Amino acid sequence: MTTHELDEATLEFAHRMFDLARTGATEELAANVDAGVPANLTNGKGDTLLILAAYHNHPETVAALLARGADHARVNDRGQTALAAAVFRQNATTVTILLDAGARPEAGSPSALATADFFTLAEMRALLETKNRS
Length: 134
What we know:
The chain has a single domain, classed as Serine Threonine Protein Phosphatase 5, Tetratricopeptide repeat (Alpha Horseshoe), CATH 1.25.40.20. 57% of the residues lie in helices and 0% in strands. The protein has helices at 8-23, 26-34, 49-55, 59-67, 82-88, 92-100, 112-118, 122-133. The radius of gyration is 15 Å and the shape is globular.
């Protein structure tokens, strides 16, 4: 089903879910996922709720989505993962949550490791390496 086949109310609801991920409205978003919204809902750019929550620095939302089955390995249309987004934003808490859930630092293109190297994020690189060895 394409966006052209969805009615206006459904599209508006989907946009609201993405806004909840962006703003870190964890309780409301989690309740909607519990009620049937797909944990891996994806927008027109391939961004999942998880990628948006990670990019916008909402570790509690990231944890809630992971607990509800969000796939940390999904990539958006540009090849980016939630882990790479968290590394770019230098959010150690979110990076740790994603790594603990099994996210792979070498996944995606650019990967979280490549992102840390490109932007010279030594602390993020060290965190990725430490968790990658455990």
